[in-house]
Amino acid sequence: MDRIKEKMNQLRLEADEAATQNEELKAKIKALEQDNLAKEQEITSLSHKNNVLESEVENLEIKNKDLKASADQGANHSTEVETLTRRNQLLEEEAEEADKNLREVNERLRQTDVKAGHLERKVQALEAERDQWESKYEEMAQKYNKVQKDLEELMAQIGDI
Fold first, then answer.
1. Per-residue confidence of the chain (161 residues) as pLDDT tens digits?
2. CB 88 within 8 A of CB 5
3. Distance between CA 25 and CA 109 in Å, rounded?
4. Is 60 exposed, middle or buried (0-12, 13-18, 19+ CB in 10 A)?
5. Distance, CA of 78 to CA of 74 (rounded, Å)
6. What is the spatial distance between Cα 24 and Cα 85, in angstroms, rounded to a whole number?
7. Which residues contact 45 (CB under 8 A, 6 or more apart)?
8. Which of 14, 64, 120, 139 gives the lowest tally of CB atoms within 10 Å of its CB?
């Protein structure tokens, strides 16, 4: 009788531990999903910024060509061309940096997706294990009730004797 109670208590503890671990994993998944969303928003923002910078670079390249043609007509435009060339170079460097950042963010997003998939599989495995423990618990409860009933019948028979 005590062994059954100990076993049931042990099963309850294991079920509680599995439920706690399940909640922790759900919290981790939620945190990863939020992180993933933030990174997606950062990617969107960087993509937009990259597009704007590329557009600005194209505009500046066109303007740079126009200014170079004007510089041939007169020496007065040479300083303006140099300024715009420097600005163009800085924008190209910023565009390259934005591209680099975008690639890094994409890689981090991919790693996060892989990690989230791994954690989802782990959660599913833990849920399956929890279900097994619950079915074992129910089976043991039925066995316990049957044994209890048999014991009561035996006690009644002994009492009749």
1. 788 888 888 988 989 999 999 999 999 999 999 999 999 999 999 899 999 999 999 998 999 888 777 756 766 556 777 888 999 999 999 999 999 999 999 999 999 999 999 999 999 999 999 999 999 999 999 999 999 999 899 898 888 87
2. no
3. 19
4. buried
5. 8
6. 55
7. none
8. 139
DSSP, res 1? -
The CB density around residue 118, as the number of other CB atoms within 10 Å, is: 10
SS3 39: helix
H or E stretch covering 74: none
pTM score, two decimals?
Answer: 0.36
Cβ neighbours, 10 Å, residue 50: 17
Taken in order 90, 92, 93, 98, the sign of the CA dihedral is positive
Q: How far apart are CA 78 and CA 55, in angstroms?
A: 24
Name the DSSP letter for residue 77: G
Are the C-beta atoms of 90 and 114 separated by less than 8 Å?
A: no
Measured distance between the N- and C-terminal CA atoms of the chain, rounded to whole angstroms: 24
